[in-house]
Structures are given as C-alpha cells and as structure tokens.
Amino acid sequence: MDVRSPACYLKGVKNDGGAMFSFLNQHLAFLLPILYKVLLAGGILFASSVVSRFVAVSLDKGVHKIKNVDDTFLPVATLIIQYGVYGIGGLFILNLFGINTASIVTLIGVGGLSIGFALKDAISNMASGLMLLFLRPFKNGDAVEIGSTAGTIREIGLFTTRLQTFAGVYVCMPNNLFWTAPIVNYSRNKKRRVEAGVDLSYFDSLQGAVDALRQIARDEKRFLDDPAPQILVKQLNFDSTRLELRGWVKNGEFWDVQWSVNEKIRRLVERGEIKPPLVRREILVKNGDGRNENLPDV
Q1: 67: helix, coil or strand?
Q2: Which of 20, 33, 66, 149 gives 20 to 30 Å between its CA and that of 175?
Q3: In terms of pTM, does the model score above 0.90?
C-alpha cells in the first residue's frame, strides 16, 4: 500500500490522536485536583483580603461614632485584625493541601520559645504598644515628656511611637521605653496653673508688692475665675521673701499667659514697684602674716 495514500494518512492521524488523548487523560487526572486546590487557595487569599478590608472599613466607621475613643486605637486594631484574618486564611490553605496544621501549630509553639528569646525586644515593644493602646496615657497631638525627651505625639505604632520635639526634631522611640520612666502629659487636663514668682527685699513693702501682683492678675483676662488667682508668700529666704502669683488658665493658653505674666513682673522691677534684694558678697583673704585682708565688694 502506498504510504502517501489518503487512507494511510488518516490511519496515522487516528493513531497519533489516540496516543495524545491517552497522554492528556493520564496527566489531567493528576493535574486537575492540583489546579483546583491552587484556584481554591487563591480564592481563600482573595476572600481574606476582602474580609480584612471590610473589617477595617467597618471598624473605621464604628470607632468614629464612639465617644472617648481616640485615633490611636484604629491603626493598631486594624493591623491586629488583618494579621489575624490572613493567619486564619493561611491555616485553611495549608489544610487544603493536606498539611497537618496541628503539627505546624505545635512546631510554631516550640519554635516560638527560641524566637521569643531572640526577638524579646521586639515582643516587648509590641506588648508595650498594646498597653499604650488600651491604657491610653496620651494620644496623637498631646504634648508629653518621657524621661529626658519632650515633644508632641505624632503617631503611635505597634512597635514604635513617633514624636516631634518642641524644637521641631523628629524622634522615634521604642514603645518599651515609655514604661521605664514617668509619663508626663501636659495636654491631658483642660486647665493648667500658671506660676510666676519674684524675690522681694526685706527692706521693701510687702503689701505694695502684693498689690502690684494682684493688679497683674486683674488685668490678665485669661485667668479663670474658678479657682481665683492667688498671691502667696511662698518662702522666706535668707535675704528675700519669695512671692508667687498663681492663676488657672485653659490648657491651650498656658504658655502665652506664662510668658506674658513673667514680662509684666519684669516691668514692675524696672519701674521700682518691686525691689529684689541686691546680692552683696564680702571676701576675706588671709595674707602671709595671718591678718585678714578685705577685698572690694563684688
């Protein structure tokens, strides 16, 4: 038979097609379950992303409707929820491919001990961040002082907190440092007390100085009426009497009032209405024959 005849050609095509179909049938039986699992895993990841995004948006809307919840709660809570959703999705994917998740959890627990020692500082910062979130000693925008660092809180993160000093310097502090020193929050209370003092000579009139300070208190309209401003004899020093003017103001007006009152007291001294003590020192020096030698006053 001529191999170039149409019948021979069709017979060859039939044989080749059968072999190819058999090949595809054998491999598809192996590949289809894997492809199904891969597609299902992709669906789980997509669903995890949708759920985490939905929870984040819902949390954002819900938090802003609740009173006494500041903005520091939202980013940290959102991050924790997103990690949790993706973690659950990852366990589903591992279980889908036949991986024993119970053994993995056990392995993670055992390995977590060694990892915990290696990352103890990071874990400490994270735990401190959660404590800052729930205890809320400060919030974004508060003026605080922690140890030797003072400034305005800009962002509270899970591991670090960023603040800006009053001189405009950026500072990033690990969260665990906030629990090693007292946290002073200058913005927490609605009112603050202005304290301005001056030393008065014992030879000057006490009543006159008190009246002059009382006039400053009356002229300063930003002082609150309740509690009323006070003029106190705070301390009796060796060569002077310490007077102090105290008055309560709104927190946001504290520094302006403090500087204004200090300036007005300084002008009282310039005009002679308050006379601080003149410091006078006398130095005695023994010369070679043991006699005292007076030096000029300084």
Answers
A1: coil
A2: 66
A3: no
